[in-house]
């Protein structure tokens, strides 16, 4: 058996959490970032996040569309929220590319984690690798932590989602709570400038029937090849540290329960783990101190996570006649502002850095429905990046994106998508 290669730090998983952690480690030693797929290839997310995340990361090129309003439909009634910080959608591959381009001196590898050898070396593809600092950013399967004896994510606290793209416009991030046929789940439609990402999720991790539920939502009999993607996301905070391992993002259950917002926490906590680990590589603290500081930071959010978990529990178990008024009550501005401040504080985008010690202060135009550079660069590509469903007249009635009431009627829900994606939709129809 060949000897193991030695690194100062190894990060397993190169999506939001892994890229954020590796960004903090860049330039502090010999660092390896490994993923089973090329960086930016394995999108699962609907890619909705606070606009402030893109601003703080100086990642405006990934912006697809600003969505100042969040609409939650319960039964037939839409409840409208205008958060103090607007949300936005972004292009997954572009954001990953931006973060990866900043990984000075970090070695990246397409190498699936296969386990841990008897002598403690990590098995990454055909390689055997050792490092003082190891960060598990492998998503809900938490493959490294499990190889070290951590329990698998509890099925009862995993949500499952599938998603497709439809040639439709819209202004708001829109949800349909417990729509017909999906009693413990949610539909969503997130406008991405030239299309809308639309999906179905089960809060209880039920994967059977999700794809056909989505087909029903879209009013199609079947999907073209490659038109549906999906995955699981946790709804309970797990251990942030296992043995001498940092666990970040979905691997540590950091996706927020109820809302399923996992990108922001993966980036914020990923950077926090990377920051603490960097200090180890630079000789400023011991690994034990770094693990303990990282764990403490995550634990500060535990009560708020637990509250969101309870809200999720009630949302799927209480009668709709109770859930509807509760959602409406939470849109009352003094209350919604208070809830919001706790919600933002859980994983505050203001802590994000472009590079260690460098805060981004980019300000992006936040006008209603403002589309970003990612949309323009897509329409310039010779080949459409993915199939987009043509609008179907048979789409469920409850699925129409609602008008946001902004002053830009051309930008609002009736807005047809433009350019290449429209052509792409015609191809998908054929
Ligand atoms: C359908 C859907 C829609 C969603 N929409 C949103 C949204 O709009 N906004 C939002 O904030 N959150 C959303 N989420 C949640 C969000 O996607 C996750 O919380 C987020 O992706 C977590 O980031 P992560 O880096 O921890 O894990 P992931 O993004 O899951 O990345 C894990 C990485 O580890 C790699 N990996 C896995 N196994 C191995 C292995 N054995 N060896 C090497 N590498 C491995 C994977 O290839 C991947 O790159 C959505 C989730 C789903 C399923």
Q: What would you say this structure looks like, in words?
A:
The chain has 430 residues and is α/β, with parallel strands linked by helices. It has a single domain, classed as FAD/NAD(P)-binding domain, CATH 3.50.50.60. The chain has 12 helices and 18 strands. The strands form 3 sheets. Strands 1, 2, 8, 9, 10, 11, 17 and 18 form an 8-stranded mixed sheet that branches. A hairpin with a 2-residue loop joins β5 (70-74) and β6. α1 runs parallel beside α6 and α6 (263-281) runs antiparallel to α7. The longest helix has 19 residues, at 263-281. Mean pLDDT is 90; it is low at 413-430. Residues 12-18, 34-37, 42, 44-49, 112-113, 137-139, 141, 143, 161, 163, 199, 230-231, 233, 249-251, 255, 260-264, 266 line the site of flavin-adenine dinucleotide.
Q: Taking Cα atoms only, what radius of gyration do you get, to the nearest Å? A: 21 Å
* Helix vs. strand class: alpha/beta
CATH topology tier name:
FAD/NAD(P)-binding domain
CATH architecture: 3-Layer(bba) Sandwich
How many domain units? 1
Q: Which ranges are low-confidence, i.e. pLDDT below 50, for 5 or more consecutive residues?
A: 413-430
Shape: globular
SSE order? EHEEHEEEEHEEEEHEEEEHEEEHHHHHHH
Count of extended strands: 18
- Look at the structure and name the CATH superfamily: FAD/NAD(P)-binding domain
Helix content: 25-40%
Strand coverage percent: 15-25%
What is the number of helices?
A: 12
Please give the largest β-sheet: 8 strands, mixed
């Amino acid at each position: 058996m060949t000897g193991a290669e030695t690194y100062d730090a190894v990060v397993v998983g190169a999506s939001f959490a892994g890229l954020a952690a590796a960004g903090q480690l860049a330039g502090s030693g010999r660092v390896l970032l490994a993923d089973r797929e090329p960086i930016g290839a394995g999108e699962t997310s609907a890619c909705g996040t606070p606009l402030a995340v893109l601003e703080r990361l100086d990642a405006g090129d990934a912006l697809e569309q600003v969505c100042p309003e969040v609409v939650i439909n319960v039964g037939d009634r839409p409840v409208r929220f205008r958060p103090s910080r607007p949300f936005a959608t972004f292009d997954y591959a572009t954001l990953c590319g931006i973060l990866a381009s900043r990984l000075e001196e970090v070695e990246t590898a397409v190498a699936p984690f296969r386990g841990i050898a008897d002598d403690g070396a990590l098995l990454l593809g055909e390689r055997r690798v050792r490092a003082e600092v190891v960060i598990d950013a492998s998503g809900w399967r938490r493959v490294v932590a499990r190889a070290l004896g951590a329990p698998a994510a509890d099925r009862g606290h995993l949500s499952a989602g599938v998603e497709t793209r439809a040639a439709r416009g819209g202004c708001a991030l829109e949800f349909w709570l417990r729509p017909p046929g999906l009693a413990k789940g949610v539909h969503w439609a997130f406008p991405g400038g030239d299309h809308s990402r639309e999906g179905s999720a089960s809060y209880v991790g039920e994967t059977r029937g999700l794809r056909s539920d989505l087909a029903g939502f879209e009013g199609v009999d079947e999907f073209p090849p490659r038109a549906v993607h999906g995955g699981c996301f946790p709804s309970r905070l797990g251990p942030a540290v296992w043995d001498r391992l940092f666990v970040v993002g979905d691997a540590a259950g950091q996706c927020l329960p109820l809302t399923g917002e996992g990108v922001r926490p993966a980036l914020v906590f990923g950077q926090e783990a990377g920051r603490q680990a960097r200090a180890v590589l630079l000789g400023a603290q011991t690994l034990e101190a770094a693990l303990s500081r990282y764990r403490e930071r995550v634990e500060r959010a535990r009560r708020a996570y637990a509250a969101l978990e309870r809200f999720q529990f009630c949302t799927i178990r209480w009668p709709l006649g109770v859930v509807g008024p509760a959602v409406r009550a939470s849109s009352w501005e003094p209350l919604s502002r208070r809830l919001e401040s706790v919600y933002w504080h859980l994983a505050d985008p203001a802590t994000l850095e472009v590079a260690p010690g460098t805060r981004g202060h980019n300000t992006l135009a936040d006008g209603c429905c403002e589309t970003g550079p990612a949309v323009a660069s897509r329409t310039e590509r010779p080949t459409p990046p993915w199939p987009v469903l043509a609008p179907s007249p048979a789409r469920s009635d409850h699925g129409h994106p609602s008008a946001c009431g902004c002053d830009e009627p051309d930008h609002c829900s009736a807005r047809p998508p433009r350019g290449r994606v429209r052509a792409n939709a015609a191809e998908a129809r054929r």
